[in-house]
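Lab channel / #folding
Pinned by the channel admin:
"Please post every new chain as: sequence first, then the structure tokens as a reply. Keep commentary short and put observations after the output so the thread stays searchable."

First post following the new format, from NK:
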Amino acid sequence: DSYYAFLDWCKHREGTEYLRYRKVTHLKKQECINLIRLVINDAPSFVIEKIEAFSRGNPFYLIQYIEYLLETQIIYLVNRKTVGITNASTFSGNLYMPAKIEELLEERFEIISKQQPPNVMHFLYALAYMGCSAQIEFQNYYWGDSNPQELQSLYQNHILKLTNQGVCFDHESIYLFLKE
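Reply from TO:
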């Protein structure tokens, strides 16, 4: 009953939010390469070239590729701004990187669905049902007063973000992927 009440609550609020867009320009090739070098310590040139080519200079795609490498434990977090390569000698042998953002998101959500309880994916699908964003009450209604680690990981891994309007997907591509 609670699940259906939740869906009714979602449906009642559907279409009540408006979206704000900010234009983020693509990075030039050299800017993208410099950013990758800055973020990934001691990255081999073939890795930098691969990430730059797949991201096509799109800052969101670049972040998603780095998050994917973190989730697959090919790289590790050094500090808030830098990551390092787990084992440089085996790095090239373990490096599979999806060539398209859709494949990358599919891989990331497969990892999430294996590592997290099912309610995490249910929440993401419910949010996609609502649209690209929802009021913060949507999140509070779903999770209650708690702020579980599962929810925190969605923000830390750049799946969701908080805005003045509430909770929303970090990028429209995530919303479109989950909506399908």
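NK: The chain has ten helices and six strands.
TO: also worth noting, Residues 101-115 form the longest helix (15 residues).
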